[in-house]
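One such shown below:

_____
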Amino acid sequence: MVTFLFLFWTLSSVFLTLNVFRPFASRKSSSFPAILISFALGWLVGDLLPQWILLNFGILLLFSFSDIFYQPLGWGGLVFHLSGWIILCLRLWVILNLPERLDQKMEEQLGNIWLKILPNNHPPDSILGVDWYSWLNPNNAVEEDPRIEIVREHVFHEEDGLLLRMDIYRPRNSKKKHPGLLQIHGGAWICGSKRQAALLMAHMAAQGWVCFSVGYRFSPDIVFPQHLIDVKRALQWIRNHADEYGVDPDFIVSTGGSAGGHLASLMALTPNRPEFQPGFEKAETSIQGCVPIYGVFNFSEPFNEKTPYPAKARVLKLVCGGTPDTQPDCYQQITPANWISKQTPPFLLIQGETDALIPVEETKTFWHALQSKNVPLSAFLRLPLVEHAFDIFPTLTAQCIVPTIERYLILLHENHINLPGGK
């Protein structure tokens, strides 16, 4: 029995370690639950590396009280475990050195203007510099920050009997006009929480930004573009109450992850479009910059026989009310690349290379579309060995990457101030 348990644990550990580097669930053949499980396991093991190694060590210590290590199987299993730990430590080294690499990439793409923006928050430079308290207690860590105040569950609109709400993060004791950040949560347009990406919002609020994490209705109760319309209503509310909350209505940046990254992109790409503003067509809905993180940009390829993605296609059928053949207009509207123009504001695209849900090629194709229109102050960051949803909680990976996002947002604001007519 002990031999069986040891073998099972060793094989499971090997599986979970390899899944961090290459998700086992295939987008072409795996079910949606299998893909989600592969993503969740890779995300947890990759970011809770020290805890994972301690757990493995503790379990191996328990096995040492048996006679398993008097057998070749025991020593072979021990070698597998140690090899896995070494490989995971290499991943940790890559993540801790990621900020320096991202800094170089941003300088290459943006030039000297990037060097003029000094970071206010520094990423951890070693395992001892990681804020594990924030990772394990994300809500308490954010809400205990004395520099900011958080207004939860504020109603900004009622639609079909449903109250649409937002969370507001803002600096304390200041009434001047602050730059605004509009955060849109992910969840495949069918679920999600406004508390996603609280680390970024709390940090930006501490630096003088007013951040709004907005909720919206979900499919299958609604179909696109109702999700986008809800977020545009939130932006209308923000601008109508700009004086009350100390927001500069002339400078608001959108951001979000996954489905939220998609909606954030459309917010930036479809300003003042009457078809997305029914009943409030005259409202100003322009956005001054966008940071989509592991966003969704391709909506037709999952239905292609050469590149099938059945799990994603199933979700899109709910979101769009059909397929590209039955709802062609909806799929034209929902695709961000179709809205790129010379008036498109700056974009910072961020995508993990080992993302189990969204392939990096999807973001790369959208990046090329932005480049074809010469969108200014834009950049694309590919993150090695980084999974989907790395920023939902203050994870190790988030703590290493969020400072770069903060710095980019500050760059956009300072560039806005220095433009003719800027404030």
